[in-house]
Amino acid sequence: MSFHELLTRTVRAPDRVIRFGPHPDQVIDVHLPKRETAPPVILLHGGFWLASYDRSHTRPMAAALADLGHPVYVPEYRRLGQPGGGYPGTFDDVAAAVDLVTAGRRGVVVAGHSAGGQLALWSAARHRLPPSCSWHGKPAIGAVVALAALSDLGEAFTAGLGDGAAARLLDGRAELLGLTDPVRLLPLAPGTRLALVHGVRDRLVPVDMSRRFAARAGAVLTEIQDAGHFALIDPLSAAWPAVTRALAPAGRQEAAGVPHLAGRARPGPAMVTTTR
C-alpha cells in the first residue's frame, strides 16, 4: 500500500474539530467511538514535517481506532513550506495541542508515525527541557507508540533523510537538536509506557533507527518483516494487528502474551519481537 492509496479511502468525517489557534492548521480533528472502551489517543501524522502532507492520510487509521473504542484526536500543525512552519512553530503547535487534549485526563496515548513519531516521543520528553523553555511541561501521557518513527533527529539531520527535511525543520541549526531530538532527551517521563513498531522493508525511515532507540530507551520494539513505511497506518494491512497490540494498555497486552516494558528512569535491555 502507498500514501496515495490511503488518500483514496472513503472514511467518515471527524465528529468534531477543535481550534487551538488562529492559523488554519491549528486544529484538532476528533473521532469519537460509539462507546468509549479504550484510552484516548492523540495521533500525530508524519510526512517529514512538510506542508504537502497533512492529517488527511491518517483518517482511515483514526476511524479504525475509534471503532475499537478509542476517542482519537488528530492535531494538525504548521509545517515546512507555510508561514510559521518548522522551528519553532511546529513544536509550538504540537505542544499546545497535546496540552489541550491531555488537560484533566490520565492515561492518554500519544501515537505518531514517521515525523509524527519524532513529535510523539518529543512530547513525552518535554519534562527534560530547561524550565526556561516555553515547551517545558509534563503532559499526562500514559504511553507513547512510535510507528516507523524518526526517533533520532540528529541522524536524520546529518544523513539528509527526506531530502534534508530535518535540517530544514531546524533552520539548519544543529544546536537546536538538544531541544528537539527525542534520543537526546531520554528518558521519557517516569511511568510512560513506550512501544515502537517498524517495518523491516521501510525505505523512508530505516528500521535500524528504531533498533538503536529501543536499545537506548530500554523499550519494546516490534519489527514487522514484510511491512514498509505506510503499512503501519493502514487498517487493512497485515501489520495492523501489531499496531493495535502496541496501543493496548499494559494489562491487555500481557493478557494477550504481548511483551511489555514500562518506561523507566534508567534504560534496560531492549525487547524485540518479530512478526510477519
Automatic annotation (TrEMBL):
The keyword Phosphoprotein does not apply. Residues 41-235 form the AB hydrolase-1 domain. Pfam families: Abhydrolase_6. It comes from Nonomuraea rubra. InterPro entries: AB_hydrolase_1 (IPR000073), AB_hydrolase_fold (IPR029058), GDXG_lipolytic_enzyme (IPR050300). This is Acetyl esterase/lipase. GO terms for molecular function: hydrolase activity. PANTHER family: AB HYDROLASE SUPERFAMILY PROTEIN C4A8.06C (PTHR48081), KYNURENINE FORMAMIDASE (PTHR48081:SF33). Keywords: Hydrolase.
